[in-house]
Amino acid sequence: MIKYQTDKTIKDIIANNEKDNIIMVFGKGTNCSVCHAIEDRVNKTFPDLYPNLPIHFINIDDSPSFRGQHLIFSVPTLLIFEGSKEVHRESRIVDFNKLYKVLDLLTT
Q: What is the pTM assigned to this prediction?
């Protein structure tokens, strides 16, 4: 079962992320069919490919502050953070090959 984070919780998670620690934030919309498909793929493949990668989910429709702070204009948006710094972003059309390459570099 996926637990969606609140606006404040996700901001705290990012702010308190250790310097060399990698995390992913998955932003989705409520009525976004593409979001559901991407979320399903992430949930089915990422635990095996990146077992130590924490993935935090947030509903962007319920989090206008987070959306504005991180300049999220379309969904789905996947944000990769190293520490509290955003190092990669995929929005709308997620290029999984590119995302895998970035994660492979960051997690090795």
A: 0.92
Cβ atoms of 100 and 53 closer than 8 Å: no
| Alpha carbons 22 and 82: distance in angstroms, whole number | 5
Please tell me the predicted confidence (pLDDT) of residue 5.
Answer: 84
Would you list the DSSP string of the chain?
---BPPHHHHHHHHHT--TT-EEEEEEE-TT-HHHHHHHHHHHHHHHHH-TT--EEEEEGGG-HHHHHHTT--SSSEEEEEETTEEEEEEESS--HHHHHHHHHHHH-
The pLDDT of 10-19, averaged and rounded, is: 92
Residue 107 to residue 48: CA distance in whole angstroms: 13
Of 92, 60, 78, 64, residue with least CA distance to 24: 78
Amino acid letter at 53?
A: L
Give 95's Cβ-side CA count (13 Å radius).
Answer: 7
Other beta carbons within 10 angstroms of residue 4's beta carbon come to: 14
